[in-house]
Structures are given as C-alpha cells and as structure tokens.
Fold:
Amino acid sequence: MTDKRSAGVAATAALLQRLLTTTPQYMRTWRVHGQRARGEVNQRAVARVLAQVEYERGDISDPTDPLVIRRLKNSVHRAFAGRSLPGQLLADFIEGFNMTPDDQGNLWRTLTGSHAVEGTIRTPRAHGKRQWHRTLSLFEHWHIDERSALSRRRTVQCVEALEDGVDSYLYNHEPHATQIDVIHGGRLGRHYEYGEGLISDDIVLDRVLGKGERASLEYQTFYEPDRRVTEVRRPARKRTYNPSLHVHFPRNALPRSVWFAVWEDHYLGMHIRETPLALSDSGTAAYCLDHMEQTVIGFRWEW
Structure:
C-alpha cells in the first residue's frame, strides 16, 4: 500500500468510527445488535449489520452464521485499525447504515481523493423524456453467473427533484433485460424504445416530489439466460453524485482480469480509458467516484 493510500485508509477509518459513534441514526443501527464495547463501537454488532448487506445481495445464505460474523468482525477490526479498507467494504458500510449523501461523499473523498469522470459522450443520444431530477447517491451491483452471463442487476439510488411535480424516474437499461422488479419507492410504468437502440422504463414514484424533495429507489433487473458478456456499462446525463459500482463473479468462474472502464457511448465502441482492478476474496470488483456527468462508465473483463 502506498503512503498516500495508507493515509487515506487511516483517515477514512477515523471518520467512519466518528460517524458511527456520533450520528444517532447510525448508532441505533448497530446498537440493535450490541452495546458499546469499552466505550467504543461494538465491532461484532457492526459485523452483523454488514452480514445483512451480504445476505440481501445474495453473497451468503445465513447472516447469522458464526463463521460469517467472525470473518466480517475481522474485516471491521482491520478497517477501524486503519490497516485495510477495500472499496467494497466501505460501500457495504454505507449501504448497511443507510448513510446520507453528504457522509457518503466525505468518506469516498477521504479514501480515494477527489475523483470524477465527465464529458466523454461525444454524440448524445435522444432520450424519451427530459431529465427533471438529479441522483445524489447510486449503488449498482451487476451479478455474473457461472455461464459468464449477466443474470441480474440491483440498483439503489437517492434522487432529488429539480422542479415541482416530479412523479417518475426514467430507467435506461440494457436491451436484453427481460424483467424489472421495483422493490422500493415506486412501480413500473411506461416502456420506451428510442435513440437508436436505447431502451428504458418509467419507474412511477410512490409520491409526487416538489422541488428539492428526495426519494429512495431500489429495483432489480433480470436478463436473457446464457448470453455471455464481457462488460457492463452505466450512463449518466446530468451529474450523478457518489456512484458506487460493483460487479460480482461466482468464486468458481472468476475472470482472468477486470478493469474499470469509460466509454463514449451507451452500447457502441471500444473503451477510451481503463483502470485495472483486483477482485476481492468474494469475487467482487468495485469502483467509486465523487460524481459522473455526460459519460458512460462500468467494467470490462477477460475470461
């Protein structure tokens, strides 16, 4: 680990512990599983919060398994000691404690430094609707199966209305999607096909937003089976804050190499930038940004 990276990990660890011991909503989350230990955060209680995140993501079958809790407690201990804080682990902290967009941004900036991708789309495609919201936080999880096919995509995001009367979110997705399930925040609405191959569906919000009001969304997308893929992409028109991207591979079918990549188009062309990534022990690659705007980012890999 470089000196700069070590300093970032240590500073992020200190910030994370301060948030978990001073922010009431975060404290309530871990205190459900245990009280303070010697006046500090109960690391086993935090591990139980993280186990629930892994369970909901489909990584484990039993969030109460003692071996799972022990593994995660060790990860929490290393993180709090400032020795190791992988991006995936920080993303799990953020998701498990439902952290605010401001806290998310501060944590990522502390860990990685200011980091953004902007303006790589040379020829914007036409869209079915104008954008009347902005995304304050975004978690994307793509799951690849043993046959090298994209099986599902789970998205969690917080959107803020830029004007009064915002009643839907336009979800642009891959053309080979077969099913979209809205888990929280709305219901599936109108389907669109436009922009020389763009496919999208409206997610009708549970309530109409006034300017500055926010809504939390969670939805899953399923895909055609046996369709082998070597990349996943995520576009953004207006600025999207705190995007956290993850691609998950089964342990018995790991790629030879994986990169974070940037493109000029939603579907076409080769990547224009890439950063090599290491897979975690669970088979996950992760990459996080402060923001993205008028660009397409994602992952590519080789088997």
